[in-house]
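Reviewers of the previous submission asked for a worked example of the structure-prediction workflow described in the proposal, so we include one complete record here. The input consisted solely of the amino acid sequence. No template or homolog information was supplied to the procedure at any stage.
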Amino acid sequence: MTAFLQLAIILAILLLCAKAGGFLSTKLGQPSVLGELLVGVLLGPSLINIMHLPVFATHETGEFIKEFAELGVLLLMFLAGLELHLEDLARNKVPSALAGVFGVLVPVGLGYWVGIVLGYDNPHSIFLGLTLGATSVSISAQTLMELKVLRSRVGFGLLGAAVFDDILVILLLSIFLALQNGGNAIEIVLVVVKMIAFLGGSVAFGLWGLPWLTKKVSRIQISYGSLTLAIIIMLIFGIAAELVGGMAAITGTFLAGLMYSRTKQKSEIESGIKSIAYGLFVPIFFVNIGLTVNIRELDSSAILVTLAISLVAILGKIIGSGLGARAGKFTWLESLQLGIGMVSRGEVGLIVASVGLQSGLLSTELFANIIGLVLITTLITPPMLRAAFAYNKKPTPVVGTNA
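From that input alone, the workflow returned the following C-alpha cells.
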C-alpha cells in the first residue's frame, strides 16, 4: 500500500473517531474536546496503538499526522483571536497581566520545590519549575467557545493572561539557558529586544498595514482571495513568533486573529476558517495529543510521581493565576474560572519539556512524568471549566461589547 493511501485511511479513521467521541462527550454533558482527547488516548499506544499497526507502520505517516495537528492548533488560536477585539483585551490588561505573571511565578516556585524534594540539583529543579510554569490555552479556548463564554470578562482575561504567561516563561527559559551555557547580559537583553520587536511589529502591521492589504485583496477577482490571504498572514505571524520573537507559534497566530478581528472581512474569513479548522485540522490536533501518550510505560512509582507533580501543577495555576485575577478586581468565582482555564499545559508544556530533555536538564524519567502531567492537565481542564461556569450562567460581559 502506498504512503498516500495509508495517510488517507488514517485520516478518515481519526476524523470519524474524533467526531464520534466529541458527540458522545456532549451527550454526557461534557465539552466535545474531552471526547476527542480520550479518543486519541484509546487509539494511541496506551491501548490500540493504531499508528504502529502493520498497515500504518511508516515514519512518514506518523510525522504527517503530527504536522497536521500543529496546523490545527494554529487555526484554533487564530479563531480564538478572531472572536475578540484588541480594545476588549486592553480593558482587561491589569487582571490579565497579574494573572499571567502570578500564574508563572507560583508554579515555577512550587515546581522548584518538588524538584528539590525528589532529590534533583538546582538546575534540574529550576527547569522542572519552568516546565510547570508553561500553559496552553488552546484547550480552554475551545471549551469556552463551546460554552459561548469566550467573549466574557473571564474569556478576555484568560487569553490576555496566556500571552503574558508565554512571554514570561520564554523569557525566563531563555535567561536560564543562557546562564547555564555561560551567556552574558547582552544575550539576555537580545532576547527581550526580539520579543519587543515581534510584538511591536505585529501590532503595528495589524493596526495600519493589514486593513489596507485586506481591502486591496478583497477587490481582486480571485476565488477566496481574502480567506487565502488570512491563512498566509496567520502562518507568517506564527513563523515570526518563533523565529523573531522566540515565542510559541500559537501566540503569533492568536495575535494574527486579533488583528484580523478589526477588518471588514472578519465574517467572511471566520466562516471559511471555521470550516477548514473544525472539519479537518482541529479534530486531528486533539486526537494527536492522546496519540503521543503511552500510559503503559509508566510503572507504579512513576505514576505516583506523575500524580504528585500534576497536583502541584494544577494547584499552582489555580492559585497563582486565580490570585492574580482577584488582585485585578475579578470576583472570586471569575478568578477561579480563569485559574482553571490556565491549568492545561498542552503542546507548550511539551515544547518546554523537549528543550529540557535535549539540553540534559530533564532526565528521561522526569520527561515521562511531564508527558503524564500534560495528559492529565489537558483532560481535566474541559470538565473543570464546565463545572466552574455552571455556577455562572451569565458571565460578566466586558463593558462596551455585545458579549
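The radius of gyration is 21 Å. We consider this example representative of the routine output the project will generate in years two and three.
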